[in-house]
Automatic annotation (TrEMBL):
GO terms, biological process: regulation of DNA-templated transcription
Protein name: DNA-binding response regulator
Key words, A-Z: Cadmium, DNA-binding, Phosphoprotein, Plasmid, Transcription, Transcription regulation, Two-component regulatory system, Zinc
PANTHER family assigned: REGULATOR OF RPOS (PTHR48111), TWO-COMPONENT RESPONSE REGULATOR (PTHR48111:SF76)
Residue ranges of every copy of the OmpR/PhoB-type domain listed in the record: 123-221
Pfam annotation, one family: Trans_reg_C
GO MF terms held by the record: phosphorelay response regulator activity; transcription cis-regulatory region binding
Thylakoid is among the record's keywords: no
A Gene Ontology term for the protein's cellular component: protein-DNA complex
All copies of domain Response regulatory, residue ranges: 2-115
Residues that bear 4-aspartylphosphate: 51
Organism of provenance: Paraburkholderia aromaticivorans
Keyword Zinc carried by entry: yes
Length: 223
């Protein structure tokens, strides 16, 4: 699972990252509010650890803007323990709230508790044009035609469909489909996209998976 830590205290961020990595999480760090919001909106994380007092944008503003686009679980961290701050955070869409200083074992327990909760307001069926992707059953149809995909192909299709209308870069594909970074000279992404396209597009007149030259790929129903 991937976690983003938005925390402007380098020692605190490093301490939390080390502990989470030892607990088998993949962790990214941002020390600035604007950068943290960009990562939160443009990358896929299972949970965001968000400090309230940040340079650029504060945690409440980041949370507000994030909730306009995504439902990624958020654990707020702050040195402020006032009741009104807790209420403001929770009402803004935070999933939990932890005041500093805290014991790491409680921090980890709260993260695991948030991750165990059912995800709210998440569609179990994605649609792009005449294509329907049933996430629960892992089935794909275009019209009445069922399309059989490998596990890797399904993961790639899900990533592209969830970002319908957005350009998805090769770097994003490699980090989400294979959970690693490939050498830029390899063509593994192109091969994977070509195989997926052969199944979901080539047999059909209307094409849904498009290449944006020099940038990446976009899934959309174009006129």
């Amino acid at each position: 699972m991937r976690i983003l830590i938005v925390e402007d205290e380098p020692k605190m961020a490093s301490y939390l990252r080390k502990g989470l990595m030892e607990a088998s999480f993949a962790v990214d760090i941002s020390n600035d509010g604007n950068d943290g919001l960009f990562l939160a909106l443009h990358e896929d994380y299972d949970l965001i650890v968000l400090d309230v007092m940040l340079p650029g944008l504060d945690g409440f503003e980041i949370l507000k803007r994030l909730r306009e686009k995504k439902r990624t679980p958020v654990l707020l961290l702050t040195a402020r323990d006032a009741v009104e701050d807790k209420v403001a955070g929770l009402e803004s869409g935070a999933d939990d709230y932890l005041a500093k200083p805290f014991v790491y074992s409680e921090f980890l327990a709260r993260i695991r508790a948030v991750l165990r909760r059912p995800t709210q307001s998440v569609d179990t069926v994605l649609r792009v044009g005449d294509m329907e992707i049933d996430l629960a059953r892992r089935r794909v149809h275009r019209g009445s035609v069922r399309i059989d995909l490998t596990a890797q192909e399904f993961t790639l299709l899900k990533l592209l469909a969830e970002r319908k209308g957005e350009v998805v870069t090769r770097a994003i594909v490699t980090s989400h489909v294979w959970d690693m970074n490939f050498d830029s000279d390899t063509n593994v992404v192109e091969v994977a996209v070509r195989r997926l396209r052969a199944k979901i597009d080539n047999p059909f007149e209307k094409k849904l998976l498009h290449t944006v030259r020099g940038m990446g790929y976009v899934m959309e129903d174009r006129p």
